[in-house]
Design a protein that fits this description.
The complex is a heterodimer.
Chain A (H helix, E strand, L loop, with lengths): L18 H20 L2 H26 L7 H17 L4 H20 L7 H21 L1 H4 L5 E2 L4 E2 L2 E2 L3 H23 L2 H11 L1 H6 L4 H27 L1 E2 L6 H15 L3 H22 L4 H4 L4 H16 L3 H15 L21
Antiparallel strand pairs in A: 1-4, 2-3
Helix pairs in contact in A: 1-7, 2-7, 2-8, 2-10, 2-11, 2-12, 3-4, 3-5, 3-10, 4-10, 8-10, 11-12, 11-15, 12-14
Chain B lengths: L2 H33 L6 H18 L4 H24 L7 H21 L18 E4 L2 E4 H22 L2 H11 L1 H6 L4 H27 L9 H10 L5 H21 L4 H16 L14
Antiparallel strand pairs in B: 1-2
Helix pairs in contact in B: 1-5, 1-8, 1-9, 1-10, 2-3, 2-4, 2-8, 3-8, 5-6, 6-8, 9-10, 9-11, 10-11
Classes of the chains: A mainly alpha, B mainly alpha.
Chain lengths: 357, 295
């Protein structure tokens, strides 16, 4: 068991808790860099998807996990990012500029959707974001002259000044860079005054306001940054799939994002990655399991959705702190061995508190 | 045709679909008021109720009215069981968790219904005695099914009003939704009330399903209408029963009129545009009461 003795307040805000943590993250980074050289193409392709979901999850985690604003409309930002990059590249705008524009436009849409958030809270906000996302999707469907409507758009490969990402490892390199940047950005926001203000708003809006937190500015910032990251993820997603149409961005995607950050562990950085791995890996696991099930069960079309729902319910009832909570318990068990008790990490029935660093 | 007649015709069919939104919205509001749970599976409860009715009336050969009543009872029992198994253990959890739990239930219900032999993913027709009949009112031609929807909704809303204002249990339910602690101290069994409200709400949803069936058939995705009923409930101010009815009617009529006069596509989002516009002006909805929060 390791004891932390803090000698200054700045230690609470360090990027890594200590040298050992930094070492393990560096090792993880090395493994990620080495992945394209050792993994078969199929797994690499799954890693690319995970990376894209990490970027989107980082956005939603900032808004829902740290700022406490539930959004049922993140599919809209995802769609805005994807369509912006697709449309701009079709008209000859280079990738980097289109990518930046996708993020910027998503941030603007997020800012506008966030405006009612100043006056709404909880349920009303969730429904307002839901309504706004339906409107955005409908605009994409009907604005045929630009978005090609329901028939969708083809997306070219990423091209940066003559260099073309024409293979999976090259796409992986770009996605990895963006995902790492997104994680670092969210981590930095969370340990900066802005992030602390967000957490204050999440834990009690009234208390935060009376402590001098400018609700309006912080909430709008959370919405805009969250939308920006999700939009960037959408732009990468468009390049990964090479074809996008509005049907890929329904409410089910918004719900998938929420499930992702919940199962990962709400209000934790680890949860973003764990959740993304879960959301991408689960359909694969179900597909593998189908081979071992009796045909009558395996043939059912709803099997995957059913498994998804059952796993989600199991987490909600048994482990609402998500995969990150399980990980913490395991760690705690070994570091306390043999003194771990069932109640050691008993969860209090209250709103999600931020991760202890 | 006379533009006025066209307009009135659209209003009548808007009121009729609005009644369905209102019934589903009532289900949301009933559960939310009493238990502070936002039930995203309300549309799926409606779908299950419609399937129960279809099974009893069309597959089982039970006459229409008793078949529907039985289906309502079965759905109510289903709601009570759902509350018991899932929502009761979650009391005290953050709102986010409970919202996800009901979302999971809605996904699960859709998946399970799609797997049940005889239900599946096909569309089914729920036979009803009024099919195809029309009632002329002056120059208007109104289908008997639309009139039935409106009549049933009026009767049900009246019955609910009497139940909540006169019946002993109804008053106890109101007390529970106003102040759980005080209600508990006055000897009201809060847990039983929660079960009861889930039962009532599920039965109202099932009724909405039966009424919707002639217009939209019985199929596994009919619960998505809950996504329209949600704005209706929020529009009226979540937590106000008259608000839910008014919200449903407004959204139904606006949608029909948008389909008539506005460019294609506006109809799909009319409900959401109206909702956002109202929330900009009145963040607590039309009939909602803004609450102050203690720190």
């Amino acid at each position: 068991m390791k004891f932390y003795k803090k000698t200054s307040y700045t230690e609470d805000f360090r990027l890594f808790r200590d040298g050992a943590a930094a070492f393990w993250y560096a090792l993880l980074g090395l493994a990620l860099v080495a992945a394209p050289f050792v993994l078969p193409a199929y797994y690499l392709s799954q890693l690319v998807l995970i990376g894209i979901y990490v970027v989107a999850g980082a956005g939603l985690m900032l808004l829902s996990g740290y700022c406490g604003q539930i959004s049922l409309g993140h599919a809209a930002f995802f769609a805005v990012g994807a369509f912006t990059v697709a449309v701009l590249e079709k008209h000859g705008v280079p990738f980097l500029a289109a990518f930046a524009a996708a993020g910027a436009l998503s941030a603007v849409v997020g800012f506008v959707i966030g405006l009612p958030a100043l006056r709404l809270s909880g349920l009303y906000l969730a429904i307002a974001t839901l309504a706004a996302s339906f409107i955005v999707t409908e605009v994409i469907v009907r604005w045929e002259s630009v978005t090609n409507g329901a028939s969708g758009l083809n997306v070219a490969k990423i091209r940066i000044a003559g260099w073309v990402a024409d293979s999976e490892p090259k796409l992986y390199a770009i996605v990895l860079a963006v995902a790492l940047a997104a994680m670092l950005a969210v981590r930095n926001i969370v340990r900066a005054p802005l992030g602390l203000a967000m957490m204050a708003i999440r834990d009690s809006e009234t208390a935060a306001q009376s402590m001098g937190v400018p609700l309006m500015r912080v909430k709008l910032a959370a919405f805009a940054i969250s939308a920006l990251l999700t939009g960037l993820a959408g732009a990468l997603y468009a390049h990964k799939l090479q074809f996008i149409d509005p049907d890929q961005f329904t409410i089910l995607v918004s719900i998938e994002f929420l499930v992702m950050i919940f199962i990962g562990g709400i209000g934790s950085m680890h949860g973003i990655v764990l959740g993304a791995v879960f959301v991408i890996a689960l359909p694969q696991l179900v597909a593998v399991a189908k081979d071992y099930l009796p045909a009558a069960v395996a043939q059912q079309s709803g099997l995957q959705a059913a498994v998804y729902a059952v796993v989600l319910l199991a987490f909600i009832l048994a482990e609402p702190t998500g995969l990150y909570g399980i990980w913490r318990k395991i760690k705690h068990y070994f570091s306390m061995f043999p003194f771990y008790r069932k109640g050691s990490l008993r969860r209090a029935k209250s709103f999600a508190k931020s991760e202890t660093w | 045709m006379d533009p006025l007649i066209v307009f009135l015709q659209a209003v009548v069919s808007g009121i009729s679909i609005g009644c369905i939104y209102a019934l589903v919205a009532l289900g949301f509001v009933l559960i939310y008021k009493a238990t502070e749970v936002v039930n995203f599976a309300q549309g799926e409860l409606m779908m299950v109720g419609a399937f129960f009715a279809y099974t009893l009336v069309d597959l089982g050969g039970v006459p229409f009215v008793p078949g529907v009543l039985l289906a309502l009872l079965a759905t109510a029992a289903f709601g009570v069981i759902l509350n018991h198994l899932l929502l009761r253990p979650l009391i005290g959890s953050p709102a986010f968790t409970i919202v996800l739990a009901t979302v999971a239930v809605s996904t699960l219900l859709r998946a399970v219904v799609a797997m049940i032999p005889g239900w599946g993913v096909e569309t089914h027709r729920l036979s009803n005695p009024l099919a195809g009949q029309v009632v002329p009112i002056g120059k208007l031609v109104v289908s008997a099914e639309h009139l039935m929807v409106i009549a049933v909704t009026v009767v049900l809303v009246g019955a609910l009003y009497l139940f909540f204002s006169r019946a002993r249990v109804g008053v106890a339910l109101q007390a529970t939704s106003q102040n759980q602690l005080a209600a508990g101290y006055s000897g009201i069994d809060i847990r039983r009330m929660f079960g009861l409200i889930w039962g009532i709400s599920a039965a109202v949803a099932a009724l909405a399903g039966v009424l919707l069936a002639p217009a939209a058939f019985v199929h596994v995705n009919m619960g998505y209408i809950g996504l329209k009923a949600f704005p209706a409930a929020v529009l009226g101010g979540f937590g106000s029963l008259p608000g839910a009815v008014v919200g449903g009617l407004i959204i139904g009529v606006v949608e029909e009129l948008a389909g008539l006069y506005a460019p294609e596509g506006v109809k799909n989002v009319a409900a959401y545009v109206v909702l956002l516009a109202v929330l900009m002006v009145r963040p607590q909805g039309l009939f909602g009461i803004s609450k102050r929060v203690r720190v």
